[in-house]
Design a protein that fits this description.
globular; homodimer; mainly alpha; 1% strand
């Protein structure tokens, strides 16, 4: 099997295992310390957390962790925690007061399928559940490892990471202070993207190193790979918006340009962005070189992110 | 100084120290792992987290922890984490899609002072920050203690605790499934209240035992005290709604009855509720008896909660 086929195979397997795990974590059985699990709230959390998504973030956790021989079940737990954060962010981003989207992956968004109050609470519930999962013994037997994971996840997803990035995105759209959109400089675009989407992808790789109790040099390598994947993800997304086939992409293209949104493609042009993408993928390969052949599937993952047409 | 004056004194001191600590935690300096702290988001989080509230939950953490000689600075950190959860819940509960409140403690609610999108994100940011704070070395040097704190906080505040309780409250108001309010039975009211407000108060006491690495019997005593405080808090609140002076209470009274809301006062009557309140305070005293005189300020706290007229 070539690296690309192996990547698809491993991604599919992680997606399947993550689905099974989240299905269990979002069950109705009460855990120690819980008083009740209201049916409607649980149903909305399941709607938002199950049945969709490529589970690319859990894949990164599992594959980075496997470089250090981490138990796969533990890595899947950390991946499930991360996926709860990712899914809550989609629910809140889709709300009428935010991006006001009615559809997500072709299905009604949570506030459309339920209602706004339920969607807000389901997001809050998933966000909170992420830290519950990360703190469990099943995620790692060593409490020092678990608490490091909790802290890294909080930093990646809060004010200084993903939530902050969503704030910068709304600000760039001119949503505040009188409502004038402002074209960002390249550096500002990179910061916004590093926060909004990059932080969680980087955390996914970092989590592998935390679970594996990797050396500082190894963690540094994983973080450089994670940062490269985040940048590649974003440029590929921007390119899809310009060049993608709406039928394949499954959503309207040309939205960014219409919204006057500053993107790397807008700043560097299509050819410049593609050249940048090649450099980024090469950076990802260089970062993982010390891990040899065992990192091939991660490098195939970076290439997949860069080349994707959906 | 009598116990009641001592309680007021300690409560005020914890409030002051918590304010100072949260002011620092909500500063603009970046922490390791953070990329940026967008000014508007930070401002909204400060608006929601600073300058108001009695800080009764942090008081419970600090006083319960002090029974075991826990470093006050550590207990204040755990209290600050809990207060972030409490404050985020107020921001989200006030949103138009939820309780739709324009004022909170006489000030514009976060979505009025800023806007809905900013308020949603500020709530998400405070919720996430709580777990960042709980996971820091300054909260406790032992990672096993910190991760236990993280897990207990997640269980108290998520699907199986506070968020679930808010869901039950909205459901009881008839917000879903065609919109008919339903009068809850006593048992249902108690479950709703144990989740919506009780879980965090109970966690506050539990946190003291976790930080103090207390014995199972001691933790059990603290939890029984915490549960009693939660119940007293709620009945006192219900009584204020029926008997309170709107000028003193600072909000409209009689709202629960008008809304057809089932409360313990509605079920037991005013005299029955007052008798129940006395039993609950007595339970709180009995629970803390093993701690002797050092628990006097906590017992005064339970009495304050039961007798409060504001």
């Amino acid at each position: 099997m070539n690296a690309s086929a192996q990547f698809q195979d491993r991604l599919n397997q992680v997606a399947k295992d993550t689905e099974t795990l989240l299905d269990r974590l979002l069950g109705s059985a009460l855990l120690d310390g819980e008083i009740g699990r209201p049916a409607r709230l649980l149903e909305a959390m399941r709607y938002a957390g199950l049945g969709a998504g490529k589970r690319f973030r859990p894949f990164l956790v599992v594959e980075c962790a496997s470089l250090f021989g981490v138990d796969r079940e533990q890595a899947l737990m950390a991946g499930a925690a991360l996926e709860c954060i990712h899914c809550y962010s989609l629910v809140h981003d889709d709300l009428p007061a935010m991006d006001d989207d009615d559809l997500r992956r072709g299905q009604p968004t949570a506030h459309k399928a339920f209602d706004e109050a339920t969607a807000i609470l389901a997001g809050d519930g998933l966000l909170t559940l992420a830290f519950d999962i990360a703190s469990r013994t099943a995620t790692h037997p060593d409490p020092a490892v678990r608490v490091e994971l909790v802290q890294a996840l909080a930093r990646a997803s809060g004010l200084g990471g993903m939530v902050g990035g969503q704030m910068l995105d709304l600000a760039a759209e001119g949503r505040f202070d009188g409502g004038t959109a402002r074209r960002l400089q390249e550096k500002e675009v990179l910061t916004l993207q590093a926060m909004k989407t990059g932080a969680l992808l980087k955390f996914a790789c970092r989590a592998g190193g935390i679970l594996g109790q990797a050396s500082a040099a190894q963690r540094d390598a994983l973080e450089r790979y994670g940062a490269a994947v985040g940048q590649a993800f974003q440029i590929a997304d921007d390119l899809l918006d310009v060049e993608g086939d709406p039928a394949l992409v499954g959503k309207q293209t040309g939205k960014d340009a219409d919204a006057g949104k500053a993107t790397i493609v807008g700043i560097l042009g299509v050819d410049g962005a593609k050249a940048r993408l090649r450099t980024i993928v090469s950076n990802a390969e260089v970062a993982l070189a010390p891990f040899g052949k065992s990192a091939d599937v991660l490098i195939a993952g970076a290439k997949f992110v860069a080349d994707r047409n959906v």
